Amino acid sequence: MSDQANTPPTGSHRGPLERPTRAVQRGIDTAFWWSVRLLVIAFALAGLFWLLGKGWSLVLPLLLGVLLSAILWPLAQVLRTVLPRSLAAILALLLLIVAVLGIFAALIPNVAGQATQISDSAIAGLNTLQTYVSGPPLNLGDTQINNLIDRGVAELQANAQNIAGGVIAGASSVGSGVVTTLLVLVLSFFCLADGDRLLPWSRRWLDERSHTHAVALGSRIWSAVRGYVLSQAAVALVDAVFIGIGLWILDVPLALPLAVLIFFAAFIPIVGAVASGAIAILIALVTLGWVQALIVLGIVLLVQQLEGNVLQPLLVGKSLALHPVVVIGSVTLGGTVFGITGAFLAVPVAAIVTVVLRYVHHQLVPDEPENPNVHEETNKRRRRVRSPETDATSGPPAADGGTAPTS
User: Fold this and answer.
1) Degrees (nearest 5) of the Cα angle 232, 80, 185?
2) Which of 98, 124, 298, 354 counts the highest number of beta carbons within 10 A?
3) What region does 13 belong to: left with phi over 0, alpha with psi -120 to 50, or beta?
4) What pLDDT score does 94 carry?
5) Inter-axis angle of helices 56-80 and 20-54, to 10 degrees?
6) Nearest to residue 224, comparing CAs of 350, 333, 377?
7) In the beta sheet, which residues pair with residue 397?
């Protein structure tokens, strides 16, 4: 009887109901403050991009210098065993310059020797196209074709001033590129010679706690940059070798220069592989025909599938642990804001930002792993590999699902 008296009636509530107007007002307040936060973040990002644009002439050589130092660091370390730091850095840079000049010196005769073949094939392709459009179903006569050509020439003459301005701008870009290259070499020299002294040197200017965080972040960022450069170089080499062999077997002109182009373009994830593959397919179409072009398309797609499904997750994915959406978004944003250079630097910059965010989150929440992907892979390996002590002390499984004691 007492239980029935203490039981609340059906449909009753444990607390007072919130008034509908109050609930709507609370929702509007929450949306307002989140909108303010998002606007502040958007203005901060816009200001950051504005500052980067103003100081791009210094930021770009610095980033390229760090990437170049990451490539040459193992060689410089080997040379340090027999040479002083400065001489080892200079020799590493000289060897790189000699290698690049040697590659271009070997490619120039190849390009010059086959340029005539490509131009003749292009002219023949244009003649074939003209014959096609002259017949059914287009039935464009010679007069109409000539009118189209004359219209194109007139457009070029009308925009001659703009074209000349573009040529002048291109010449100034070449001069700016020379200055940027010199700055990159100078900064790379200092990174190779004294890069490992920067973090210990910061102890003079930071307290113990700040110095500890600076050393931890610096080592993580350097490991991420080196991992990206070396793994992406391995992926680019595989792309260039396999696609280059396919082009050579099909006797596509400029097979060696195209392989070198594919190697360098592969450092721009996703976009570079598509652009360089399209150039190879276009040259095969112009010079050999659509059958060989389709075969080249198949080779490019096959190699890119190998890269995307095997090499990228195995090498780049494990070194950076970035989701493909992050990679695509960073490449798109970098290319939109800073052009081809931004697309090239987008992934390493995204990796650096990710490393910093993961480290900060781990410091705020120490119980959670700093890199969940690496933590999960480590746990999987531990589950697969059993220790000898466990195997020795564990007996055969008992009937109840446990482990039977050993005698």
Assistant:
1) 55
2) 354
3) beta
4) 92
5) 70
6) 350
7) 403
For residues 371 and 320, what is the distance between their CA atoms, to the nearest angstrom?
A: 10
pLDDT of residue 236: 85
Q: Letter for the amino acid at 363?
A: Q
Question: Helix (H, G, I), strand (E, B), or coil: what is residue 383?
Answer: helix
Residue-wise pLDDT tens digits, 184-217: 888 888 888 887 777 777 777 777 888 888 888 8
Taking the whole predicted model, whether its pTM rises above 0.70 is answered as no
